[in-house]
From TrEMBL:
Protein name: Probable branched-chain amino acid transport ATP-binding protein LivG
Family of the protein in this entry: Belongs to the ABC transporter superfamily.
GO biological process: amino acid transport
Function: Probable component of a branched-chain amino-acid transport system.
Region forming the signal peptide: none
Pfam families: ABC_tran, BCA_ABC_TP_C
Origin: domain of life: Archaea
SMART domains reported in the protein's UniProt record: AAA
Location of the ABC transporter domain: 20-269
InterPro entries, A to Z: AAA+_ATPase, ABC_AA/LPS_Transport, ABC_transporter-like_ATP-bd, ABC_transporter-like_CS, BCA_ABC_TP_C, P-loop_NTPase
Keyword Cytoplasm: no
GO molecular function, one term: ATP binding
PANTHER family named among the record's database cross-references: CONSERVED COMPONENT OF ABC TRANSPORTER FOR NATURAL AMINO ACIDS (PTHR45772:SF9), CONSERVED COMPONENT OF ABC TRANSPORTER FOR NATURAL AMINO ACIDS-RELATED (PTHR45772)
Organism from which the protein derives: Halorubrum glutamatedens
Length: 271
């Protein structure tokens, strides 16, 4: 069951709409063109894969979408609003959350402490709590609600038994679960997952996929960067192939498999 406390069903993003629209993104580093006129959109409630060889521009595209980098040209719209140039936390507050290829949890804090930092709009951060008793009470009520939700999300990802463990002691797969759990606590409409299965053993990979599919059935939208071709082809409704900084092909898994252009340029003549 999807954790309560906020979901895509709360937002006015009907299935069939395109919450994420990327148009003409370009980014250069010195004389190197990392992303060159990249355009695509992602339909609400779907699993979309973004694939390509190393250096294709996938992670740079993610960074441009989520405000980690500023594009030289192009626009990004989310839920109909332009978010190009916004700070990462501003984009996250719009409902667009992401994970990273290398998990970025706070290693010297416990799993539970990491989770408690994730919810947005925490009134306990306000200076008013020090001078207004009613606000202190509101803070206590909110913290209780957030703690309940944190435990619910930890249970959903089956890491509640690790709540008191320091994040730095977790395995690579457990860190992936923690990072996705933290992202879910921001009440996103859409999640961008950067190599969520890298370094994950087969049993944890299966659990992650189950969680992703369950969340998708509840209405969440996913864009996933992944190198594992079989995993993307077997789990995504749509696949975007990047090559040398550009979108080479955009279509269903069947269309990608049948594309001579993709087979020649990326798959080495074999799917």
């Amino acid at each position: 069951m999807t954790p309560e406390g906020g979901s895509p069903e709360d937002a006015d993003v009907p299935t069939g709409s395109t919450p994420l629209e990327v148009e003409g993104l370009r980014k250069t580093f010195g004389g190197i063109v990392a992303v060159d006129d990249v355009s695509f959109d992602v339909e609400a409630g779907t699993l979309t894969g973004l694939i390509g060889p190393n250096g294709a521009g996938k992670s740079t595209t993610f960074n441009l979408i989520t405000g980690m980098l500023e594009p030289d040209a192009g626009t990004v719209r989310f839920n109909g609003e332009e978010i190009t140039g916004l700070e990462p936390h501003e984009i996250a507050n719009q409902g667009l959350a992401r994970t990273f290829q290398i998990a970025r949890e706070l290693e010297e804090m416990t799993v539970l402490e990491n989770m408690m930092l994730a919810p947005k709009g925490q009134i306990g951060e306000s200076l008013w709590r020090s001078v207004m008793p009613i606000t202190r009470e509101a803070v206590r009520e909110q913290e209780t609600e957030q703690l309940d939700r944190v435990w619910e999300v930890l249970e959903f990802f089956e890491i509640d038994h690790l709540a008191d463990e320091y994040a730095g002691n977790l395995s690579g797969g457990q860190r992936k679960l923690l990072e996705m759990a933290r992202a879910l606590l921001t009440d996103p409409d859409m999640l961008l997952l950067d190599e969520p299965f890298a370094g994950v053993n087969p049993s944890l990979e299966k659990r992650l996929l189950e969680h992703i599919h369950e969340l998708r059935e509840e209405g969440y939208t996913f864009l996933i960067v992944e190198h594992d071709m079989d995993l993307i082809m077997n789990n995504c409704e749509r696949v975007i192939v990047m090559h040398q900084g550009r979108v080479l092909k955009d279509g269903t898994p069947a269309e990608i498999k049948e594309s001579e252009e993709v087979i020649e340029a990326y798959l080495g003549g074999e799917v």
